[in-house]
Design brief:
The protein is mostly helical. It is 62% helix and 0% strand. Helix 1 crosses helix 3 and helix 12 packs antiparallel against helix 13.
Length: 201
């Protein structure tokens, strides 16, 4: 893995992405996949994230997602234009959740966590997440992270997913662990959540 990492820090890559976003040959770089280096993937993610045209951005994201091969690029890939196009974004999230590529699924979960746990929350969204059956560590971790955040933001609606478990034991317990690490959940809630831990058989 070390041979694929040059060693450029993330803040420098973000600055460079802003410069490259106006480069006349940018489209050639975005089509040149897969990349060899970790930093190239990071630049690719940061450049797409700067795109102000939703339809262009979503096309570029859909092309890039199958080539993401690490959690860092996946989690730092967050197009700002998605915030003002949540309704259109949702159909893509649902499609990505069905992917066989773990980082595409992780990205979709991250977008669901980022954009649909506040005013746009609906109960169908965590239900969608419970339908994901994966043995991939980075998918299961993001499911746990999603539900921990959901408990912090939508506690009454999400609690039944734990009192009547919908997740596999490992993911259930990991979500509770992460919820107990949150500063947004009360001490009383944390005490109760700890009682919902499932003992491994």
């Amino acid at each position: 893995v070390g041979a694929t990492i040059i060693g450029v820090r993330t803040p420098q890559l973000r600055t460079y992405a802003k410069k490259l976003a106006e480069h006349p040959q940018l489209s050639a770089f975005l089509r040149y996949l897969p990349h060899q280096y970790f930093e190239e993937n990071q630049l690719h993610a940061f450049i797409i994230s700067l795109d102000k045209n939703f339809h262009h951005c979503i096309q570029a994201a859909s092309l890039f997602l199958p080539y993401i091969d690490n959690w860092a690029t996946c989690d730092q890939f967050s197009p700002s234009i998605f915030t003002s196009h949540r309704r259109e974004l949702l159909s893509y999230i649902k499609k990505w959740l069905q992917s066989q590529h773990p980082y595409t699924v992780r990205f979709a979960l991250g977008m669901l966590r980022q954009h649909f746990l506040d005013k746009d929350f609906q109960l169908e969204y965590p239900q969608l997440v419970t339908h994901i059956k994966s043995k991939e560590y980075y998918v299961k971790m993001m499911i746990a992270w999603y539900f921990a955040t959901a408990l912090a933001k939508q506690y009454p609606a999400i609690l039944p997913f734990f009192t009547q478990p919908h997740l596999d034991t490992w993911t259930h317990n990991k979500a509770l662990q992460k919820a107990n690490e949150s500063a947004c959940i009360s001490i009383a809630q944390k005490t109760y959540l700890r009682s919902l831990k499932i003992k491994a058989s």
